[in-house]
Amino acid sequence: MGNPENVENLQRAQLIAHKEILSFKEALIYLDVNKSTLYKLTHKKAIEFTKPNGGKIYFKKSDLDNWMLQSKPESERVLEDEIFNHLKRNGNGKKIN
Question: For the chain, does the N or the C end have fewer beta carbons within 10 angstroms?
Answer without folding.
Answer: C
